[in-house]
Specification:
Arc Repressor Mutant, subunit A; two-stranded antiparallel sheet; mainly alpha
């Protein structure tokens, strides 16, 4: 087990609202709120939308893979999949072909719902990214990736 010693922050934030973690969480909460608003108009939640996007890119993903990719537990992922299946947006076999995985696929209705909501969600992302000067976007994305990597090692 790697031992770590407490260190002083590399910046001199005199209050928690100026800490990197706080500001990241504030940005995430604002993004989630904006997405919730536009998705609600289409009868979807953020995890449901994320699942539809991922299945459009990678048909046949398992519940475990989808849960990991959408940042929810396997149990929550299963609830999301059941809701999407009940709404006719995805299909899954009633029994697994092998092992325990039941690969999910978008239905035509799922593809149509995803297409209908993408414009609204992408507009939210555009509003967010327009706040960043274009010459800094590549560095921001790299920094965010490095932050995530540093915390999972």
């Amino acid at each position: 087990m790697k031992k770590t010693t407490p260190t002083q922050p590399r910046h001199s934030a005199d209050e928690v609202t100026n800490h990197v973690g706080y500001l990241l969480k504030r940005a995430q909460a604002a993004l989630r709120g904006a997405m919730d608003k536009v998705l609600r108009e289409h009868g979807l939640t953020v995890p449901q939308y994320a699942t539809l996007e991922l299945l459009a890119l990678h048909p046949g993903m398992s519940n475990a893979d989808l849960a990991r990719a959408t940042f929810v537990t396997r149990q929550s992922g299963n609830v999301v999949l059941r809701g999407l299946q009940d709404a006719g947006l995805i299909t899954r076999p009633t029994a697994p072909d092998h092992g325990r995985a039941r690969p999910a696929h978008l239905t035509e209705e799922g593809r149509a719902r995803l297409a209908a909501v993408q414009t609204a969600v992408y507009a939210v992302e555009q509003r967010m990214t327009e706040a960043i000067p274009s010459h800094r976007m590549t560095a921001l994305l790299a920094d965010l990736d490095r932050i995530a990597t540093a915390l999972v090692e």
